[in-house]
Write a structure and sequence with these properties.
The protein has 326 residues and is an all-alpha fold. 75% of the residues lie in helices and 1% in strands. The protein has one domain: Farnesyl Diphosphate Synthase (Orthogonal Bundle), CATH 1.10.600.10. It has a two-stranded antiparallel ribbon with strand order 1-2. α1 packs across α3. The two termini are 39 Å apart.
Length: 326
């Protein structure tokens, strides 16, 4: 008998209840206080909800998928703790970052223990498919670290191509989103073809998501995004916006842009580079690229052999992710 289709809010309520009942240990205090700090700054919980929605597409057991959902969220937050250290970021989701509050040493250890605990949650109540889950999770973890290294490597380069950028964000961001839906499908017993189509759905949604994230960092509103607008500009991050501007700008505009990359006045740097992004058509190009990737994601979802109402529920959630303003 097919179970009743749950809303995103109902799935989120189940996930939050599971997370609340699976708290971190109390001692040693420093390491777990740091882990609790990042987890208490609740983000959009996109990855756990994708895992649960994917499981539900095939009428899977949501209770069995809760551990997997928590595993991807804890893993994601572990990467944020370490990313913030590397980026010297002081604010995350409008709150001080872990290393700002507890120092770098505690933040590194907090991230490390979160990675280890993620595997415990992954295994919770899933002995029958644990090998498949671990294989997907392990491969994803390696790819995320590789993507982070490419991101670091790009900081000192001005010749990064769009192809290289897409590959970097695929590994740094998209593979974990793709992993989330695939893990949910594995829990539900989906066949390999449906698992792969869902994975590709998540991969392309993740690419659109990261470009949107970069876009909002430059063209979003600070009170909605939860951080200072223009951070990527200040750090000369090789986003699609900057890469496209460097490759397509006319000679005079490119000279001005290269000069602005060395500008010490932060407000001037942000304002003038944003102006160049708009002048050179980079803003519109990024919007077009995002839409293309999101459309491809939905095409892969349409290939999944499952109930249309259940697929539509996942598509609606993906639309919320894509059209967000934060």
């Amino acid at each position: 008998m097919v179970s009743v289709l749950q809303t995103t809010d109902e799935l989120l309520q189940q996930y939050d209840s599971y997370a609340a009942s699976n708290t971190f240990p109390s001692e040693p205090k420093g390491i777990y206080d740091g882990a609790r700090h990042i987890m208490s700054i609740k983000g959009k919980r996109i990855r756990p909800l994708l895992a649960l929605h994917a499981c539900e597409i095939f009428d899977g057991n949501i209770k069995k998928a809760l551990g997997v959902a928590h595993a991807v969220e804890v893993f994601h937050n572990f990467t944020l703790v370490h990313d913030d250290i590397m980026d010297n970021a002081s604010v995350r989701r409008g709150v001080k970052t872990v290393h700002e509050v507890y120092g770098n040493n505690v933040a590194i250890l907090a991230g490390d223990v979160m990675l280890s605990l993620a595997y415990q949650y992954l295994a919770d109540n899933n002995d029958d498919c644990l090998v498949d889950l671990i294989q997907v999770f392990n491969r994803t973890g390696v790819q995320v670290m590789e993507g982070q290294q490419w991101d670091v490597d790009f900081e000192t380069r001005l010749d990064v191509t769009e192809k290289e950028y897409i590959e970097m964000i695929k590994y740094k961001t998209s593979v974990l989103i793709a992993c989330s839906v695939k893990l949910g499908a594995i829990i539900a017993g989906a066949n390999k073809e449906d698992q792969e189509n869902l994975y590709q759905f998540g991969l392309h949604l993740g690419l659109a998501f990261q470009i949107k994230d970069d876009y909002l960092d430059t063209f979003g509103e600070a009170d909605k995004v939860g951080k200072r607008i223009g951070g990527d500009i200040l750090n000369n991050k090789k986003t699609l916006l900057l890469i496209t501007a460097l490759s397509k700008a006319e000679e005079n505009d490119k000279k001005e842009l290269l000069s602005l990359l060395k500008e010490g006045d932060e407000n001037k740097k942000i304002t003038n580079i944003k102006t160049l992004f708009e002048k050179t058509g980079v803003k519109e190009y990024a919007e077009q690229k995002m839409q293309e990737l999101f459309t491809t994601a939905l095409e892969y979802l349409a290939k999944v052999k499952a109930d249309n109402d259940r697929k539509n529920k996942l598509a609606q959630f993906a639309e919320k992710v894509y059209y967000r303003e934060f």
